[in-house]
């Protein structure tokens, strides 16, 4: 039967009381978006996240490959390079671009090589604090009862110790204060906030219907904790960890400034402390390490704020 015949018979069938088949409309099912996909979509359009992420990426590259930015040994001393000389700002990336310190060392080279110590201390402390504090908070929030009471009181005890003062007392007991020693001292006193945040988040998540259903179906404790609770309770901890990373970098610089930080290698805090002795006549010695420290701390704090706004539905 031709198409013309079909089109002619259709109105006749309708007039005779027949019913034409309804056209089938295919609706494409929209893929459900999770909290993480929504957060990533918001972050990609947030200029604060983009700027802070680029700055952090630059800091990571500098700390991993300082030779790409300077070929000068930060410990080379030449007293012929007087610290009272003005920085040669026109000679970018040269030995005297940012001037010299009182020991005849290149300020630019020490600023570049000091990035590694600060970033390693910040990342290492954040990793240890997140793992240990997150585990303590997850156990306390999930099991409750006597375990929650013991772990919560232990957390309160450590929270009562002043962070910087306690770190100073601990580090004063070591004559050789390397990066792992500084990380251990900061992490020993810095896990309490992460534990508190994780505990509250786990208490909220464990009351959800999907957790109760998994428990009713006979799921084990490990499966419930790491399959159902942890992925849905980790978001606030990520925010705290991101912001705290900048705080730990500032804490390391503060300890080095006071002479209780790293004893080997190059540190921004130690250079700032050394530059304080000649701040009236050679401000560049203290200025440029301070700028790098401020950029590093501000970048991680900005990143943490952007992540917090993206993961918190109330901020949208």
Structure description:
There is one protein chain. The chain is mainly α and 316 residues long. Helix content is 66%, strand content 0%. Helix 2 (35-44) crosses helix 13 (284-311) and helix 6 packs antiparallel against helix 7 (179-190). The radius of gyration is 29 Å and the shape is elongated. Residues 1-18 have low confidence and may be disordered.
Radius of gyration: 29 Å
What's the main sheet like? none
Q: What value does the average pLDDT take?
A: 84
Regions with little confidence, pLDDT below 50 for 5+ residues: 1-18
Helix proportion of residues, in percent?
A: 55-70%
Class of secondary structure makeup: mainly alpha
N-C termini distance: 60 Å
Query: In percent, how much strand structure appears in the residues?
Result: under 5%
Number of helices: 13
- Shape summary: elongated
The succession of helices and strands, N to C, reads: HHHHHHHHHHHHH
Total strands = 0
């Amino acid at each position: 039967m031709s198409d013309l015949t079909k089109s002619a018979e259709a109105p006749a069938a309708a007039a005779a009381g027949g019913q034409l088949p309804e056209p089938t409309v295919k609706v494409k099912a929209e893929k459900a978006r999770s909290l993480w996909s929504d957060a990533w979509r918001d972050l990609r359009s947030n200029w604060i996240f983009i700027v802070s992420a680029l700055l952090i990426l630059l800091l990571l590259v500098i700390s991993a490959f300082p030779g790409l930015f300077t070929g000068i040994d930060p410990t080379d001393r030449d007293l012929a390079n007087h610290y009272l000389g003005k920085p040669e700002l026109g000679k970018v990336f040269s030995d005297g671009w940012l001037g010299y310190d009182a020991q005849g060392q290149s300020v630019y080279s020490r600023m570049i090589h000091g990035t590694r110590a600060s970033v390693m201390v910040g990342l290492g402390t954040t990793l240890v604090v997140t793992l240990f504090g997150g585990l303590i908070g997850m156990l306390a929030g999930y099991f409750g009862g006597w375990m929650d009471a013991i772990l919560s009181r232990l957390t309160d005890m450590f929270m009562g110790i002043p962070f910087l003062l306690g770190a100073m007392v601990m580090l004063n007991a070591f004559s050789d204060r390397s990066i792992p020693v500084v990380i251990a001292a900061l992490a020993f006193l810095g896990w309490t906030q992460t534990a508190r945040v994780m505990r509250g988040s786990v208490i909220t998540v464990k009351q959800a219907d999907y957790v109760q259903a998994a428990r009713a179906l006979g799921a084990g404790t490990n499966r419930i904790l790491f399959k159902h609770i942890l992925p849905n309770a980790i978001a606030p901890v990520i925010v705290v960890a991101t912001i705290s990373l900048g705080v730990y970098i500032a804490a390391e610089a503060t300890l080095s400034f006071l002479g209780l930080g790293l004893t080997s290698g190059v540190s921004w805090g130690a250079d700032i402390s050394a530059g304080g002795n000649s701040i009236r006549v050679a401000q560049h010695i203290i200025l440029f390490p301070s700028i790098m420290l401020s950029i590093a701390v501000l970048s991680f704090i900005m990143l943490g704020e952007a992540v917090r706004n993206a993961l918190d539905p109330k901020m949208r």
